[in-house]
Amino acid sequence: MTQDPALETLGLPPIDQIGFVVKDLDAWVRQFGPVFGPFTFMDGSVQGADFRGRSEDVRLKIAFGSSGDLEIELIQWQDGTSPHSEFIQSGREGLHHLRYRVTDADAWIAKLAAVGYSPYWYQRWNADTVFAYLENPDFPLYLELLQMPESGAGEPAN
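The structure corresponding to this sequence follows.
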């Protein structure tokens, strides 16, 4: 997969997920089940994430498949405001983001700023778990950073 050459110099870990934003999750699961299935499903709704400087809620329906160690994420936007609603409302559907699992999301956000990436969706779930989507006007895909212990996200901070 072609990457932004500027990313190669930073020492990011390998891409561990490719995310697709889709209009009809069930149709995509039927179509790609033989390739990436079986899929598991979850409610991917997010409350109070910072999206373009505003606190926003979103309802998402998500399916996870895989190809070897690479996770395939299918996301259907249902309601609210997020990168997914913006993507679908602009008339797009399909490949959306590349995810990197990192140990310190905030440090990586600072490193990526040096090569033109800025966060536009961010949430600190608790002390150990953070996600962020970043964009660069010169690269057609978004990046997701996920900082989360192997044991899972844990309970949200209050």
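The helical segments are 5-8, 25-36, 83-89, 105-113.
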